[in-house]
Write a structure and sequence with these properties.
161 residues, two-stranded antiparallel ribbon, two-stranded parallel sheet, alpha+beta
Length: 161
């Protein structure tokens, strides 16, 4: 008789637990942190738990620590034009690539002399020949002469995905 009572209680307990609401498992996810490397001009998502790079943008768990995670797009100012929308290689405010904006001859450093002789590049003029010839911004390969930032297509911002 006792075994029947125990059996009835087990069956009732199993039936009740099957129909009663249980606490939902913790399925909260953390949005990945975006790490930005300005020197390399790249951005990558990283796990908020351990800091590991999230290689698979569709992954729901960190491959390194197992934390639940997801990658959310994030819009930032364009790292190339800094939001200005214009090509930094040829638009107004650009810097000569030959002299880095100093307007001095890059061969003789603006002295006019090279190894005791007249500088073969500037012919003693001390000035950057590329600047004098108007080569600054001429035939820009980056924007194909549109003067629009090629990195963000002139929007001033990019979306990390």
């Amino acid at each position: 008789m006792r075994s029947i009572a125990v059996l009835v209680m087990l069956v009732l307990g199993a039936a009740c637990s099957a129909t009663s609401p249980r606490a939902a498992p913790d399925v909260s996810e953390n949005a990945a942190m975006w790490q930005i490397d300005d020197d390399a001009n790249i951005a990558f998502p990283a796990c908020t738990g351990c800091g590991a790079v999230i290689e698979d943008r569709g992954a729901r768990t960190c491959a390194s620590c197992g934390a639940r995670i997801h990658v959310e797009p994030r819009t930032i100012a364009c790292p190339e034009c800094r939001g200005a929308k214009t090509c930094t290689h040829c638009a107004p405010g650009r810097v000569c690539l030959a002299c880095a904006g100093t307007h001095l001859c890059s061969i003789c450093d603006g002295s006019g002399a090279w190894h005791g002789d007249t500088c073969p590049e500037c012919k003693g003029a001390k000035a950057c020949s590329a600047c004098l010839q108007g080569a600054v911004g001429a035939s820009c390969e980056r924007c194909e002469e549109t003067h629009v930032c090629a990195n963000c297509n002139g929007t001033g911002e990019i979306t990390l995905q």
